[in-house]
Amino acid sequence: MGFLELERIHKSFGLDAARREVLTGITLSVEKGEFVAIVGYSGAGKTTLISIAAGLLEPDVGLVRLDGREVRQPGPERGVVFQNYSLLPWRTAYENVLLAVERVFPTWPAERHREHALGHLELVGLAAAKDKRPAELSGGMRQRVAVARALAMDPAVLLMDEPLSALDALTRANLQTEMERIFRHSRKTVLLITNDVDEAILLADRIIPLSAGPAATLGPEVTVNLGRPRDRRAINHDPSFKEIRNGVLDFLRGAGAPPKQAVERGLRGAGAPVEVPA
User: Fold this and answer.
1) Taking 50 as the threshold, does the pLDDT of residue 273 lie above it?
2) Average pLDDT in the 241-267 region?
3) Residue 42, CB half-sphere, CA atoms under 13 Å: how many?
4) pTM of the full predicted structure?
5) Is pLDDT of 145 > 90?
6) Angle in degrees, 0-180, between the axes of helices 110-123 and 93-104, rounded to the nearest 10
7) CA 160 → CA 84, 196, 267, 274, distances in Å?
8) Do strands 222-223 and 206-210 pair parallel, antiparallel, or not at all (unpaired)?
């Protein structure tokens, strides 16, 4: 039994004849301390999947368990990092993190709140920017504040919904490297949703592709048997890198490919669109 489990999840949207099945038969098990990445096309249902795991959506069929207990609503034991940062614009970076700490640990004294919040800003390399508001921060810095806030809540599981997809290529690459360091340090249980195969290889212990849908389902998992710490340039020359990458892409270009579509712009690999057969 895994630490986080999704069991036989089905989810549809719409009414009657217009009802569209988005996810079908999703079964997933994540071990404690494991970093698992779900990779798939844009529009495949990845955000729906992470929202169900977070308790923000209820499945039509199936259930979610955390540490053996069924969960049906959001809770602080599941921290979520969204694509759009979700920071309060009138609060500083420090105040955004502090607010979450105060809500989750209301019995702590003020000094402990302060030290905990500042410590997590330091972890993501933003101690010097603690007094800046989101509008004064770059996109990459805002996302690091969001990661610091989520980690400061000390969740049992961190759920990340394409957290770097809105960033430019250079910022995204730099932040991927930074996140590899952060999660190697924290050893949190993480479920990452991404459309970037190389990002998944850099960060995850295990990658599972999601078919394009409709009625998307999980494909065969691929273990990322690369040592840590991982250096982007070094792993590109590791023979295992190509094997892992091809294992994911073979499913996404074949059984998991969208029907009647020659090029899928929502799937990334090596920073470029991936061509898939019609």
Assistant:
1) no
2) 77
3) 10
4) 0.89
5) yes
6) 130
7) 11, 13, 17, 23
8) antiparallel
